[in-house]
Amino acid sequence: MNVAEFSSMLSIDDMPFEILCDVFDYLPLADIKMATLVCHRWNQIIFSELYIKRFRMVISLNESLVRLKQMAQILEKSDRDYYSIILKANLGSPLTEARLKIVKYVVRLISEYAESLYFNMTDLRLESCVSERLLRSRRLQLIDTRAKYIPLGMGLKESMLSAICEYATELVDLVISDLNINNPKALEKLSQLSQLKLLLISDYYPYVKPVTPPISVPSLENLTLINVTDESNFYFKVDSLKRFFIHTTGTDAERTMQFISDNIVTISRLCIHFSARAIQAQPIFEHLDRFPALNTFELGGVAIPVDALRDLNPCNRVQKLILVECHLETLFLTDLNKKLLYLRQLVLDSCLLFHRKHGFQRVQYDDLEPLRRALPNLQVLLDYN
């Protein structure tokens, strides 16, 4: 077989991974998305971790003024779409007009094709993302609850967040990671995102009372606050919220529930996780009647005694109760079937149950049988994930 005959038998599918990646690099993002539909192999290559990283651009904001202006001109002429853009800056970098111009252009560049943005304030990283998937992947035990105050040009951080609100007004999902600020005024411009339905914020430590009314995000349906203080949810007022998740480092359960019920009452799913395991569950349960639409309640990191439901008003309509990493004195909570009249499902996720001889141990399937027999209409599930 000669060279011509051999070449005629080859196709693009015979090219190695690296060569195909180089070919795909010539395509704009819209065409790359279409290429994922051509065949199974192309789909695997384009969505592989190695290739996705090729959409990342790194820009240093520590360059000279002339260099920053040149960089802005290059960006304006470029027609390349990027999955991720990282802005590098020295600690305490001042905010200059040249830097601000780069920041604003970067936000416009990546938000043109993205409904979901991930903004990491520690290293000023902005990414297009599927935030609901990111949200599900952040397990309680993986969250670092230690405060990490990094003095990275607060002017840059707030200006970038401001630019997102100004130039990406059609955002549907927004994830802000490692916020690390205690001034709630930095978040006021979130009210400009009129289409925003999902907002996730981690590391938010407001210690001052806001001078303006709570931040209003009119279309928001899902609000998640991870590694925050008790007061953090006090700064948001949402009328259409359906799901609220808070993982708080605070220890005042009564205060936390008061803040939530003051501003958020329409939710159908409420998830509250505490870092401190010594918190008692009674003051949490007694507030549930203030959420008339609530049908799913998730509680994590608390101690649940026999009479935990003592002050719970039977008018609540909770149908599903999820306990995560809780310490249970017993599964037979006093008046369980009377206080939770509509309860149909009880889920125990990585919970500990007290045994007289051995102390607290992981709940086992055998522990559930007596409760299942006593309440045959209640579905009791065990989850170790």
Characterize the structure shown:
Among the domains are: about 15-45, no CATH class; about 55-275, Leucine-rich repeat, LRR (right-handed beta-alpha superhelix), CATH 3.80.10. Helix 6 (about 65-75) runs parallel beside helix 7 and helix 7 packs across helix 9 (about 155-165). The protein has 13 helices and 19 strands. Helices cover about 30% and strands about 20% of the residues. The strands form 3 sheets. The protein has a 13-stranded mixed beta sheet, sandwiched between helices. A 4-stranded mixed beta sheet has the order 13-15-17-18, with no helix packed on it. A two-stranded parallel sheet has the order 7-9. The protein is globular. The chain has helices at about 5-10, 15-25, 30-35, 40-45, 50, 65-75, 95-110, 130-135, 155-165, 255-265, 280-285, 335-340, 365-375; strands at about 55-60, 85-90, 115-120, 125-130, 175, 200-205, 215, 220-230, 235, 245-250, 270-275, 295-300, 305, 320-325, 325-330, 345-350, 350-355, 360, 380-385. The model is unreliable at about 130-155 (pLDDT under 50). The protein is α/β, with parallel strands linked by helices and about 375 residues long.
CATH topology of the domain at 56-276: Leucine-rich repeat, LRR (right-handed beta-alpha superhelix)
CATH architectural type of the domain at 56-276: Alpha-Beta Horseshoe
Mean pLDDT: 77
The helix content is 25-40%
CATH class of the domain at 56-276: Alpha Beta
Distance between the termini: 58 Å
Properties at a glance:
385 residues, alpha/beta, 13 helices, 19 strands
Task: Present the secondary structure layout.
Elements: H1 3-8, H2 17-24, H3 29-35, H4 40-46, H5 49-52, E1 56-60, H6 65-77, E2 84-88, H7 97-111, E3 116-120, E4 125-128, H8 131-137, H9 154-167, E5 173-177, E6 198-204, E7 215-216, E8 222-228, E9 236-237, E10 243-248, H10 253-263, E11 269-274, H11 282-285, E12 296-300, E13 303-304, E14 320-324, E15 327-328, H12 336-339, E16 345-349, E17 352-355, E18 359-362, H13 365-374, E19 379-383
Helix pairs in contact: 6-7, 7-9
